[in-house]
Design goal:
The structure holds 2 protein chains of 2 kinds. By secondary structure, chain A is an alpha+beta fold. In chain A, 30% of the residues lie in helices and 22% in strands. Chain A contains 19 helices and 27 strands. Chain A is globular and about 85 Å long. The N and C termini of chain A lie far apart (83 Å). Chain B is of the alpha+beta class. In chain B, helix 3 packs across helix 4 (99-112). Chain B has helices at 21-28, 62-65, 76-89, 99-112, 118-124, 134-147, and strands at residues 2-6, 9-13, 47-50, 53-56, 69-71. Chain B is globular, with a radius of gyration of 15 Å. Chain B has 6 helices and 5 strands; from the N terminus they run E-E-H-E-E-H-E-H-H-H-H. A 5-stranded mixed sheet of chain B has the order 2-1-5-3-4, with helices on both faces. The chains are: A alpha+beta, B alpha+beta. Chains A and B meet through helix 6, helix 7 and helix 18 of A and helix 1, helix 3, helix 4, helix 5 and helix 6 of B.
């Protein structure tokens, strides 16, 4: 036996076996995410399938089922499919046998791209990609080695068939992964497994069917709100009507309620089912203590203050190149433009909810959460339990959109379960969801720009006034740049002679949070609207103007040109319609969109077509990317056309969908999508489709009517600004 | 005590007759495929089929629907499996939360119109999908209509 012969993988059999002996027991004791109580309770029959964890990511059943742990949360973006797709490639198994399962919180499942087990920043595929390919290849080699051991052959003489079996080059013996997995799990992983070469990829880059969809068309998919436990009580929540208010005294228990639980800024009403809890909450009488200054939390004041801060606030400099003031002073033509966007709700279809079962010795949580990795720490701080007493189940999310990063609803469920000494499911009604969101911040932006006599941008002076997500959480100081606020206005791809990007923090205490694409969703509207306005002044068509600004950026130019071609830019649109274009880079991807619309007034805008091109470097599942572009465009259109939350006396409105218009079937444009795989580093796809659509609509409307809409929502009243802004370039 | 016929099964449920059907399905019968979205019959997440009509159930009391045939998403396969298959073929769902209601609304539409026009789809499909799956829903309805075979 040639034990010392180097195998094709650079691993000798002796090394495999020796390390097995040294560390064989370790993997067996790995804490596996076991079938949850919930799954057991709902599955009907006990599982008879034996499953072995070949590594932390991969469990192979005796029935040849392949379960891949997914570190991100499935909220529609398809990670429960695309991340297993990456593993399955190098594991070399048939896709139909693969399913994804949310991983429990754990150091081994942290996203290498973000350093945390949270789902956001369009970071799932690009963060986990390399680790998952390696995990798949490692497990495959261990399965091959297990077969080699079983047959008395060398590793190099055995290989994966590509269909979940191992074959050898001597005889017709084969072994299935399901047969090999228990032995493979005892082996020590090879350190440098060989990945499938690009030319031989079978799964990555193909539009495989998502394995979660059958459960989403027959009602069996379990979202957070569907968690059901024996002996469970049901709770609904009533927050202080005014943001910042707290409960004063102990409210009486209304008829039909089992208990009321005071939570400081809210009261939970507990009953034997959700409807009784809702009914009882209607009868709840609470004395709310409202802090001084609450009446100042009103939209009009907040925007008036923003206007003052545009003029007189002390900016933090986010980006600086050249002397923008001098360049502006010497420009042949100058413009001074102001844009603003309102607070926005997330309005996920599934309202906030969480199910918790806390006992003196354990805590089990079922949550639709984007931040599973943060929950154990939260539970420790609330309960004093130790980490090994805590179990967290990430369910499917009925939309996340950034709202389900937050811990408010999870904290409440834990506290109510502690108070009741029983499992509870806490559900927010829609009015609480709209009224106690962590809103996309309002923002007001001033763009002062100077053109030379050829229409080139020699000065770009950009000042953003908005509330700070990061400051409100205590993550940055009061005078720092909030990168979440300025994202999408810095590192622009365009060639400007000089540039300065400034941030002024708005002190309004309306709670703000992460909303799909965050600062990009705001700044792209301002930047791409202003570029269009400058093109008009320069007398150059908006496509050609951007081509000039991107002349030295071949990758961006390719995306822009592809979108123009996809939309038929340059052809005459149908009567009464015009096109607008917008371009934006973010999350490692580049997107350009062309909108074709009609409408002689803002209220009658009808978007007929959206052409969208994304270059995300490399595609895992092109169909999922197309779906994400469709999704982002619809989400962006709701915000662009109608989205707006206002405040009076710290009370938010509107509070339900009857007054918060959302895109529906009848509003849908025909969306066409092209995915470019330039071979650049993998980019994100969940968010980058959102930012361009609002400016593309505004640009198309301006092209059609000559009227520029600078206030979102575009169909709402347009802001008027202090005349001091006009031509004040100092 | 209220008597309900859901997906062909008769249930006796000990709730007030004013309780909305949605919460009886979810909290008492364990049929959690029907979803809570708004509570005011606007978003459509709670849509089921009663008789052969799509109905929103978050404000519909169980007292109103005793004795009627109620079909939920869990029973859709028994009456219109090709619609579910079309949904998969078009890879419609994203987060999936609204899809039960969307499927039930689409099923009722197809019971009314075996080959609905785009305009009929616009009129009948008024549920909200925040993920924006509308374009694929439209394609899936047309696909299901074709698969179910009767001539237009």
């Amino acid at each position: 036996m040639s034990d010392t012969r180097l195998t094709g993988k650079g691993v000798t059999r002796r090394q495999f076996i020796a390390s097995t002996a040294a560390a064989g027991g370790l993997l067996l004791t790995f804490s596996l995410p076991m079938v949850s109580r919930l799954a057991r309770a709902t599955a009907g029959t006990p599982a008879t399938v034996e499953a072995a964890a070949v590594n932390a990511w991969i469990r192979i059943g005796s029935d040849e089922s392949i379960t891949i742990m997914v570190g991100s949360s499935e909220m529609g973006q398809g990670v429960i499919s695309s991340l297993p797709q990456i593993v399955a490639e190098d594991l070399m198994v048939d896709w139909t046998r693969v399913k994804g399962e949310h991983a429990p919180p754990g150091a081994g499942y942290v996203n290498p791209g973000s350093g945390a087990q949270l789902t956001g920043g369009s970071m799932s595929v690009r963060g986990y990609y390399q680790a998952l390919r390696t995990a798949g290849a490692t497990a495959r080699d261990m399965l091959v080695m297990a077969a080699a051991n079983q047959w008395g052959l060398n590793f190099a003489d055995c290989s994966a068939s590509g269909h979940g079996t191992v074959v050898n080059s001597f005889d017709s013996r084969t072994a299935t992964y399901g047969e090999l997995a228990p032995a493979a799990a005892l082996l020590t992983p090879p350190t440098n497994p060989t990945l499938v070469p690009d030319a031989q990829l079978r799964l990555i880059g193909t539009s495989v069917a998502r394995p979660d969809l059958p459960s989403k068309v027959n009602g069996s998919a379990v979202f957070g709100i569907d968690a059901t436990l024996p002996n469970m009580l049901y709770a609904v929540i009533r927050h202080s009507p005014s943001i910042g208010g707290t409960v004063s005294g102990t409210p009486a228990r209304p008829q039909g309620a089992i208990a009321v639980v005071s939570l400081g800024n809210a009261v939970a009403v507990v009953a034997s089912d959700t409807w009784q809890a809702i009914n009882a909450a209607e009868e709840l009488q609470v004395n709310w203590s409202v802090p001084a200054g609450t009446s100042a939390l009103a939209t009009d004041q907040i925007f008036a203050q923003a206007q003052q801060l545009l003029l007189s606030g002390t900016p933090a400099i986010a980006e600086q190149q050249g002397d923008v003031a001098t360049a502006l002073a010497g420009a042949a033509q100058r413009v001074d433009l102001i844009y603003d966007v309102p607070y926005l709700a997330h309005a996920t279809m599934e309202p906030m909810n969480c199910t918790a079962s806390v006992t003196p010795t354990s805590c089990e949580i079922w949550a639709p959460t984007q931040a599973a990795g943060f929950i154990p720490g939260l539970v420790v701080s609330l309960t004093g339990l130790s980490p090994e007493q805590i179990t967290v189940h990430t369910t499917y999310l009925g939309g996340g959109l950034g709202r389900k990063f937050e811990m408010d609803y999870i904290t409440q469920a834990i506290k109510v379960s502690m108070a009741m000494g029983q499992p509870i499911k806490l559900t927010w009604q829609r009015e609480e969801d709209f009224g106690h969101d962590q809103y996309r911040p309002m923002a007001m932006v001033r763009v002062r720009a100077g053109l030379d006599s050829n229409g080139n941008i020699v000065a770009w002076w950009y000042r953003n006034v908005s509330a700070s997500i990061l400051y409100q959480r205590g993550w940055i100081g009061p005078n720092s740049v909030d990168s979440q606020a300025t994202d999408g206005s810095t590192e622009l791809s365009y060639a400007f002679g000089s540039r300065q990007v400034e941030y002024v923090r708005h002190p309004a205490t309306i709670p703000v949070g992460f909303w799909r694409s965050v600062g990009h969703s705001i700044n792209a509207f301002m930047v791409e609207s202003a570029i269009d306005e400058l093109a008009l002044i320069a007398g150059v068509n908006p496509l050609a103007y951007r081509q000039r600004l991107l002349a030295d950026d071949a990758r961006s130019l390719a995306v822009l040109n592809a979108a123009a071609a996809l939309a038929g830019w340059g052809t005459v649109p149908p009567a009464g319609r015009a096109r607008g274009i917008a371009f934006h880079a973010g999350f490692g991807s580049i997107v350009a969109q062309v909108v074709e619309l009609s409408g002689t007034t803002p209220a009658t805008i009808k978007v007929w077509k959206v052409a969208c091109v994304i270059d995300c470097g490399r595609a895992i599942n092109p169909d999922t990317i197309e779906a994400q572009m469709q999704s982002a465009i619809v989400h962006g259109m709701t915000a662009a056309l109608w989205g707006k939350i206002t405040f009076a006396n710290a009370k938010a409105s509107p509070r339900n969908f009857n007054q918060y218009r959302m895109m529906r079937m009848r509003d849908m444009p025909q969306i066409s999508v092209q995915v470019i795989q330039s071979g650049a580093a993998i980019g994100g796809v969940g968010e980058p489709g959102v930012p361009p659509v609002a400016p593309a609509i505004a640009n198309a409307y301006a092209a059609l009517t000559g009227t520029r809409l600078r206030t979102m929502p575009l169909t709402g009243p347009q802001a008027s600004y202090d005349p001091i802004f006009a031509g004040n370039f100092d | 005590m209220v008597t309900l016929t859901v997906n062909g099964v008769v249930h006796q449920v000990d709730v007030a007759s004013s309780t909305p059907l949605l919460w009886v399905l979810r909290d008492h019968l364990g049929l959690t495929g029907t979803k809570f979205g708004c509570g005011i019959e606007v978003c459509g997440a709670c849509t089921v089929i009663i008789g052969d009509s799509a109905e929103r159930t978050c404000e519909m009391s169980v007292g109103e629907v005793q004795g009627q045939n109620i079909t939920t998403i869990e029973g859709l396969g028994a009456i219109m499996a090709p619609l579910q298959q079309a949904w998969i073929d078009e890879q419609v769902p994203q987060c999936g939360y609204c899809q039960s209601g969307m499927l039930m609304a689409a099923a009722a539409l197809l019971l009314d119109h075996s080959h609905p026009t785009d305009s009929q789809i616009d009129s009948a499909m008024t549920n909200i999908c925040v993920c924006g799956t509308y374009q694929r829903i439209r394609a899936a309805i047309h696909r299901a209509a074709a698969a179910m075979g009767s001539p237009p």
